[in-house]
Amino acid sequence: MRYEEFVQQTIRDFQEKGLASGSSIPDIDLYIDQMVSCLNDELALYEKDGEKPITKGMVSNYTKHRMIPGPEGKRYTKNHCVFLLFVYYLKSCFSMDQVQRLMRPVLANYDSDWDDNIDVAAYYREILDHTAEQNRGMGEETEERIREIKRFLSGMGSDDDISELIMLITTLVMRSAAERFLAEKLLDEYFPDRSKK
Predict the structure, then answer these.
(1) CB-based contacts of 162: which residues, under 8 Å, 6+ apart?
(2) Residue 157: which residues within 8 A CB-CB, separation 6 or more?
(3) 82 CB-side CA count, 13 A
(4) Spatial distance between the Cα atoms of 161 and 163, rounded to a whole number of angstroms
(5) Per-residue confidence (pLDDT) for residue 71, from 0 to 100
(6) What is the mean pLDDT of the chain?
(7) In sequence order, what are the beta bridge partners of 72?
(8) Which has the closest alpha carbon to 74: 99, 56, 100?
């Protein structure tokens, strides 16, 4: 398969299964094994070399570090699952400390007896909808980027797939780095690390 076809197939896979909707998570309380299984079904696209995206150890660790609320007894609700999905995506960019800082006000609201609680599932769905909309043109944008790379390399007298791939991967990483930089700056400005003050 030519790399251009692979890129488009991968984008289609991501658009179809890359944003875990939580639709397979039942509206009943789950034990940790059941929750991990549901979440791994939701995040199956991210399984790599037989390694599941979520483990029981991660759940325990995220609970201990106050990135998600603790279980109710030994059971987890749909909200716990949604919190874990948040953390899963945030961990691809942020350290545990950074995720804690971002989740702190959400957890404070979730645990509050005084504030009107955020509907965590609705909040997550809105983020998913917005992100899916942003990603809708990803295939066309990537095709255009590949055409630009081919034009550039052709102008240099090259039509080598390896050079095209290296340039494509590098531009994707640099775009990702720019967005990560912005996210980290926003986090540091509005959710500062209290231990450093």
Answers:
(1) none
(2) none
(3) 22
(4) 5
(5) 94
(6) 93
(7) 75
(8) 56
Dihedral pair phi/psi, residue 165, rounded to 5°: -65, -45
| 58-97 pLDDT per residue, tens | 999 999 999 999 999 999 999 999 999 999 999 999 999 9
What's the farthest any 2 CA atoms get from each other in the chain?
67
Bridge partners, 51 (sequence order): 48
Nearest by Cα to 62 from 18, 34, 32, 17: 32
Determine how many CB atoms are found less than 10 A away from the CB of residue 116: 7
**Which two structure tokens, joined as six digits, stand for 178?**
């720019």
Helices (H), the chain: 3-17, 32-42, 56-64, 78-91, 96-111, 120-135, 138-155, 161-190
Domain ranges across the chain: 3-196
SS3 at position 118? coil
> Taken in order 64, 65, 66, 69, is the CA torsion positive or negative?
negative
User: What does the chain come to in residues?
Assistant: 197
| Crossing angle of helices 3-17 and 161-190, rounded to 10° | 30
